[in-house]
Amino acid sequence: MTDTAMIEVRHVKKSFGTLAVLKDMSVTVPRGGVVSLIGPSGSGKSTLLRCLNLLAIPDEGRIRIGTHVMEFGKGHRMPKDRDLAAFRSKVGMVFQSFNLFPHMSVVQNVMEGPVTVLGRGRDEAREDALRLLDKVGLRDKAEAYPDRLSGGQKQRVAIARALAMNPEVMLFDEATSALDPELVGEVLTVVRQLAAEGMTMVLVTHEIAFARDVAETVIFMRDGYVVEEGPARQVIDAPREAATRTFLSHFHRGTSSPAPA
Amino acid sequence: MPYEWDFSFLIQYSRLIAVGAAYTIGFTILTAISGFTVGGLIAMVRLSGTRLVALPLMAVMEVFRCTPVLVQLVWVYYALPILTGVELAPSTAAFITLTLYGASFFAEIIRGGITSIDLGQWDAGRALGMRRGALMRRIVLPQALKRMIPPLVNQVVLQLKNTSLLSVLAVPDLLYQGQLITSATYKPLETYTMIAVIYFIILFPLTTLAYGLEKKLAR
């Protein structure tokens, strides 16, 4: 369905001190693909996501995003600040706790990347930012400061801020976990819209129903390994592995049949 | 017989007192700026994590934090020239001492302000592709400076009071002028009362400002 892979993770390992969090991870995401990472906390899914934009630097392995390749481990030097920054500017990330810049207005938050990192002109960047805010339904909040926004609005601004860099890939790290239940929908709507536009995305999520709905592929991780990987509906509705079944049994899935015991 | 207070004689010393106030304020401003600059550099080095440079710096800082300014002043003026062979003018020695003393406290305030910024802010800046300098300048420092203002103002208040110790090196600050006037008039009560009032007049607005800022920024 797609020509080449957009994201290629090969044999990535990552430890924090003596704790091995990722033990030989390999993942491929096709161009325009949407992959959801699920698994219990401590399974390494957030670390994997952070490795994808090098907020966590892998100890070993190879990561390719688009045409940008980074290799780690023996024979490879620690990447320089400049190389890390260049790589990250191509990868958008949305965080669980939003991490908007509180000292900037909404539109300034969205302009910040293009102006500071890409050196774009303020007027041009502002226009783009307003267009993106329109897209996430927050044009009228452009001059507000983050502390005036609801969680759902904050997260939509954060998505616009990431999109402003024109990323090749978007990463969502439990983007709805900090939201009140009634605010989850508005964020998921934006994510669904991005998927429809063909954005390549990796989502770490606890929204199992959403993962099943939006992702083509679901990867179930545990203890730093991939336990099961496959088409979203298959993994969630009919998991092959016992560990996946056990994990999924903790979730109520609104639309589909009750979880098997 | 009760003591007869009489402040009128101080009028003739108003020029002397003005010069003293100018020295006190001037030294405070100069050493606040130089101390903040040096302190900022120390904080950056400590945060950058190069321990080889950071450890000796921390050692020097601790010496300045854990000894009295008066001892430092005397030591820099009398002992340092013996070690280095370079004579220092009293005001130079005073400037060096107050700069380093201030820097050792400013460094901690600045470092504390920077480390108080949520790690998510660093993540967000990095994720946009910001390099270290831009991250500091655009994201971290604007937020950190706001939190640093109240303790920085407090430190400047202390710095101003510490300038009174410069009198031991015969730098003509407010207190030294007071001593001069006292030895000429034998009226220490009025003179030192007057000096104290002047310190208060200079500092009270500053502490009020610090208090106000603290309340405003605490929201």
From TrEMBL, chain A:
The keyword rRNA processing does not apply. Its main location: membrane. The keyword Amino-acid biosynthesis does not apply. It is found in: Cell membrane. It comes from the Bacteria. It is a peripheral membrane protein. Gene3D superfamilies: P-loop containing nucleotide triphosphate hydrolases. GO terms for molecular function: ABC-type amino acid transporter activity; ATP binding; ATP hydrolysis activity. Keywords: ATP-binding, Cell membrane, Membrane, Nucleotide-binding, Transport. PROSITE patterns: ABC_TRANSPORTER_1 (PS00211), ABC_TRANSPORTER_2 (PS50893). Residues 7-248 form the ABC transporter domain. SUPFAM superfamilies: P-loop containing nucleoside triphosphate hydrolases (SSF52540). Belongs to the ABC transporter superfamily. This is ATP-binding protein.
From TrEMBL, chain B:
Pfam families: BPD_transp_1. NCBIfam families: HEQRo_perm_3TM. It is a multi-pass membrane protein. One of its GO terms (cellular component) is ATP-binding cassette (ABC) transporter complex. Residues 21-210 form the ABC transmembrane type-1 domain. Its main location: membrane. Keywords: Amino-acid transport, Cell membrane, Membrane, Transmembrane, Transmembrane helix, Transport. The keyword Cell membrane applies. This is ABC transporter permease. GO terms for biological process: amino acid transport. The chain crosses the membrane at residues 20-45, 191-213. Belongs to the binding-protein-dependent transport system permease family. HisMQ subfamily. PROSITE patterns: ABC_TM1. The keyword Iron does not apply. GO terms for molecular function: transmembrane transporter activity. Gene3D superfamilies: MetI-like. It comes from the Bacteria. Coiled coil: none annotated. InterPro entries: AA_ABC_transptr_permease_3TM, ArtM/GltK/GlnP/TcyL/YhdX-like, MetI-like, MetI-like_sf. SUPFAM superfamilies: MetI-like.
